[in-house]
Each structure stands twice: as C-alpha cells, then as structure tokens.
Amino acid sequence: MRSLFALLSSALLVQVGLASNIAYKLIGTIVTDSPAFISVEKFPNQPEFLLISEFGALSSGKVAVIPNIRDAFEGKAKFSDLKSKVLSSAFKWPNSISVIPQDVFPGVNAIVVPDGFLPPGKTNGNIYVLKTDFNTQETLY
Question: Mean pLDDT across the chain, nearest whole number?
C-alpha cells in the first residue's frame, strides 16, 4: 500500500513539475507507517527535527519525530537510515502538529497536538501539549 502511495505521489509530483516547469530531484525517502501531517521544527539551541502525525481510519494515532533531519540533507546521514521515534501513541486523529514558542512556556520544549476529527467512529477531540526532551527520550503530558 505504501509503495502504491509513493508511486502515485511521485507521478503527481512529476505532473506538477512538468506543468509548471519546476525541476525537482528525489534525494531520499523516509518510510513511516501512516503519515498525515509533517513539519520541520526546531527548539532553541537544538538541531532541526521532522515532526510527523500519523493516523488511519481504523487505527489510533501517534506523534513521532525524526531528530537531526538536516544531517540527511547535508549528506552526514542516509535517508534510508532515518527512523522515526514515537513520542506518543495516545491520540485518536492527530492533525497538524507544531512547536510551541519558547515565550509561551519559558525554558520548556513543548509541542501542540490538535487531536480529533468528526468522521464516523471518531470524536470531536482535544488539543494536547506534549512537553518533551528528545535527548532523554522522555515525553510528558
């Protein structure tokens, strides 16, 4: 299923690139279970990381991170070696996640997770704040 999705996504990118004369080059692939929203984020004085929300129609949702994402773009790591680390799998339908600015919670590295949707079988949801430290692999609510 993921291979089919990757193939369709690549075909779409090629069509978009041809239609708009924008050239692109595939530099790597990151494999995840069921990605929904992604964003490259950064905490102060730390390297950039990729935040990934994942969910499926019949499965619970999770929030994952790939630390040091810049290393792959700079050739210090291979895209195929990048593995996501699950921060939490306690969500139903996590949407677009992002870093909370440091001036909101001074000295705290936190991520906001809007969770919920309204298709059949899901609930309205909530907004969660994850306090996290990627160095210790500790995630707190």
Answer: 78
